[in-house]
Amino acid sequence: MLNKLNTLFAGSSGTPGQKVLYITAHPSTSESSYSLAVGEQFLAAYNEANPNDHVYHIDLFRAEIPYLDNEIFGAWNKLQSGTAFDGLTAAEQAKVARLGELADQFVEADKYVFVNPVWNFSYPPVLKAYIDSVFVAGKTFKYTTDGPVGLLGGKKAFHIQASGSVLSEGGYASFEMAHRHLDAVLKFLGVPSFEAVYVEGMAAQSDKAQEIKANAIARAREAAKHF
């Protein structure tokens, strides 16, 4: 079973539904975050349209997301050389187990919703740490004689991203590294469907910030009905 970590919404009936991971990477709240505000409205509309589905919230700034470090690499090397899991140190066991839990949760989900701000042309580092946790050969992709093949076909993903400047198009599009990297990640893992709603330009046009936010909410709510 998918671990019910930080449950935000659950289906209103006992009928089995699809499992959705709502993955947020912002340290603030929806009162001050454009991405989280739009994300909450997306979820509200999604829940209305899909009452039997189950949405699980992973707040990356508050969840335990191990960063790949020397301790983890050392533990993996021990395991590959034949050391039993019980032979790892307590700290190594905790990190390796947590990474496995996150990867299993990701595999068992049917849909993913990523919500993040853009910081210096990319997303917050904790989202990269989370992505690292789900890149597992044999679980989310496999190596073949023809190259790596993603194992998450049939799943869907949605991205809500906020940035002070317009990065989805125009003169600064080539600077945008967050959505483009996430798109590459999901393609590599075999996810065939990836849509996005951008909340952007609020700093460049501060007098239109609320209008930009309202328009993004409207687009997100409409997209949620068909996700």
UniProtKB/TrEMBL annotation:
Q: Where is the Flavodoxin-like fold domain?
A: 19-222
Arranged from A to Z, the UniProt key words for this protein are:
Flavoprotein, FMN, NAD, Oxidoreductase
The record's section on Pfam families has: Flavodoxin_2
Concerning Gene3D superfamilies, the annotation shows: 3.40.50.360
Assembly information from the UniProt record: Homodimer.
Q: What does this protein do?
A: Also exhibits azoreductase activity. Catalyzes the reductive cleavage of the azo bond in aromatic azo compounds to the corresponding amines. Quinone reductase that provides resistance to thiol-specific stress caused by electrophilic quinones.
EC number(s) reported in the record:
1.6.5.-, 1.7.1.17
Q: Which organism is it from?
A: Paenibacillus glycinis
HAMAP family in the cross-refs: Azoreductase_type1
Family of this protein: Belongs to the azoreductase type 1 family.
In Swiss-Prot or TrEMBL terms, this protein is called FMN dependent NADH:quinone oxidoreductase
Q: Where does FMN bind?
A: S33, Y34, S35
Concerning PANTHER family, the annotation shows: FMN-DEPENDENT NADH-AZOREDUCTASE 1, FMN-DEPENDENT NADH:QUINONE OXIDOREDUCTASE
